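Fig. S4 source data, part A: sequence.
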Amino acid sequence: MINQLINTIRNSLIVITILIIINWLLLSSNTLAQPIDNSRREQQVFQSIELNTNLILENANPVEKQQLKDEKYAQMQESEFKFYRATNHLFWQDFANDSRLSKFGNSNTKTWILGDCHVDNFGAYNNDKGEIIFDLNDFDESIIADYQYDLWRLATSIILVTNDSTLSKSEQEEVVDSLSETYLDTLDSYVGNDEETKIYFTETNTKGEVKKTIEKAAQKTRQGMLEKWTKVIDNQRMFDFSSENLGLATDAKKAIESGIIDYGKTLSGKLNYDPEYFKVKDVAQRLNAGLGSLGTPRYYVLIEGKTDALDDDHILDIKHQFQPTPTYELFSLYDRINYRKIFNNSAKRHALAYKALIKDADDFLGWIKLVDNTPVDGDFSGDYSVREISPYKKSLKIKKLTDKNSFIEVAQQWGKILATDHARADKDFDKKLVSTSFEKQVKKITDGKHQEFRKLVREIAFKYAEQVEADSDNFVTE
């Protein structure tokens, strides 16, 4: 009896000790796990770039891996902005859990964010109604986190691109201030109503270069998109492998054909899976795409569409999804455990983020698991996001912005779009993921402090742009 009591006490003490250790880890790890040490920054930046690139290219064959790495590094050396685009991991290492977040943020100001918000991650494309919209367009890094990460990264990108313009520093400040103020004003306008769930941005409620981008996108056609990527031989449409951006994908084609039914089960829009509609006609490897994600396994899939006519085919974009950058030892242990509990499939997380942030998202949105049964020259196995290639995809040309007023006009629209997307991605989308009214919480913490808010965003953007320039210069001379 006494021995049993002793064993019970001993086991209880072990459990208590384990709980204490876990609690200590949860508390003590609420800092960056791998921050950049500025005393050794040049070395650590290069190491971080190498690690991130190797992670993306982990399963590529050795020859392709070196070629892709060389190509990526060459592009990164072309400009500070390209370097910035390719190094989202550095941004997160520098800013994850930054103490300044608490000035205008707290645990209630988290929502779905883009996670890699910069000026080139906005663009025109069609929604599920066939309307041409202008909105966020890259959800690979999307997570639930503090909204300020998106705003700070976007503001920094504005400084980097305007450094190549004729704008003075004071004019750059005005552009960033217009972004920040419009962002806050837009959130304020949604408090007490649900307008953010109804609004999206088309040629009817945009202006300037944003409106022109949408209008130019509307001139595009599905036929034009198909002609860009495919050809017709003997009345059969197939991919045109003479394009330097397409490669053969024999093994992947087999995996996609066998997994297309399971992909159909992930559809949640107005489109239901139909074996004839989703009949796989051809598959190609997508090459030379992206910058930060260059080398990520990616495939274009030509499917039949509504009829067997050649002009209503669709092309699906199937892309391997990794865990978002912040989850790689940058968030607290609690955040990492919670993330992995909720999002054990990064492709599913991509689809959720897309739906949360964008109204009337792509009906083809879903995910698929691919298995490489013959991983001789690399292994493409993994979870893949699926979305349609929009026939109306169009980027805003930053070079068209030639003066302060044109930059301000676009920055205000970036701010309005970002605020709207953040606001509709809160409990309006899924209260199990985000339980608060995001816009209400931000208004509460920023009310009467807009000037201070603008100042903080401005200071961070300018200072970090300088750091990016220094990192870029060091990388070029490495």
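Fig. S4 source data, part B ends here. Confidence is low (pLDDT under 50) at residues 15-33.
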